[in-house]
Structure formats: C-alpha cells, structure tokens
Amino acid sequence: MTQPIIVEKTAKTVKEAVNAALAELQLEEKDVEVHVIEEPSKGFLGLIGVKPARVKVTVKPDPLRDTLRFLNDIFQTMEVQAEIIPQWKDEILHITFKGDDLGILIGRRGDTLDSLQYLTNLAINRQSLSRIRIILDVENYRQRREETLVRLAKRLGDKVKRSGTRVALEPMSPQERRIIHTALQGDPKLSTFSEGEDPFRKVVIVPKQEQRRPRGNNPNSANEYKGEYNRSATATRGKSRPYEQREGISKSMEKDRPGYDR
Known about the structure:
The chain is an alpha+beta fold.
C-alpha cells in the first residue's frame, strides 16, 4: 500500500487552513482527517510574535471515490467522453462505461479493457486498507464476449469428438481461457488444458482418451505410451493445420504444460 495523501496548510485560523487544504484536494471535510499541528497565536500586544494556524490534512481511502477519480483522469488524458456507472455486487465493484465510439476502450478482443482493469485494480488497492476487486466493462461487452467464447468452445468440442483429434485455440487472456475450460468441463468425452507462456498461452481441447495413462507395473509402458503420444500429436498437428488456418488458430505449438488456468 502506498503512503496516504497528506497536505499541510497554514492560515490565520484553523478553519481557513483546513478549507485551503480541501480546496487543493477537491474533497469535502468528511473525506479527510484533520490534525492541528499548531494553534494560531496573536503574540505580544497582537503585533509581535504572531503565529498562524498550521494543520495536517490526511485523505481517507475510499475505493469508489478513488476509482472514479482515477478513471476520469485517464479519460481526460485520452480525450474520451464516457459515462461511468458504478455498482457494488457481492463486494465487487462493477463499473460500466457508456457513450459513443468507445471501441478504443475495448481494443482488440478486449486487450485494452483488460489492461485498464489491471491498472485500476493496481492503483486503487495500493491506497486501500483492504483489497477489493474492480471489474470494468463497456456496454455489456464482457457478457457478449463470454457468450461468443462459449459457442466457440462447444463448436470446437463437437469437432474434436467427431474427428478424434486435438484442437488448439488462439492465445487468450487467463479470464477467457477459464471461460473455455468451464464451458467444456462437464463433457465426459473431452478434456482441456493450457500450454505455452503468456501472452501466447492457449487452450487445447483433446478427446478424453488422449489424457489417459497406461496402467500396470511395466516400467517401460509409460515411455512407450509417451512415444506413441508424441507421434500421434505430430500427425494430428499436420492434419489439423488447414482447419487451424481457417479458424485463425496459432500454428506454432509449444511444449505442453497441462493445467487449468487460475
């Protein structure tokens, strides 16, 4: 957590010093804590040794207020006009943007929106006393994208079951990979895992039997299976390449790193 915002002011009276600090911070008195460092003094005969009031004003953390100010500053820099609509749901701060021509906030397949969300969470949680989660959306884009990914997962899952060959999707963010995993996790004929390194990490859909391991006490069985699996995977990649090109799926296959995205 970063250091809190603190402003010190001097004036003829404590009230004037506090008002000067609030004007600089553009906040109300309920948003700050005031500590009087020094009371004003009129001095001898009201002329000699006069001392002004000195106060220290500390800004109280407020996730909602700080988030709105952070986003407004970013939009002002980007010269973007957007209505910001906040809503708390299950202790998660959901913020929706509405306006014209907000595609710049979404980016390619949500890349810009994900980056803005990451930066917002990082900035606000550095100042917050307790960690909160902030989700940004542009006119329900995330729900539409999720529905598209679920349809894609079902369609490619059906292809894997028909052909018996694995399919690798294009690289996706961790959030989108989780959507693919969740959409297919209840299918008894399919398995999914992720491979590669971010930002090129992708989901692979395979027939259930491709994930099986040989049983028995033969110490060579695992190596024999591994060799058969590698040959099968190599053959599969070659056969599925035309489909991957049509679907925009990455052709470069990295070393398998099975595992559900967290």
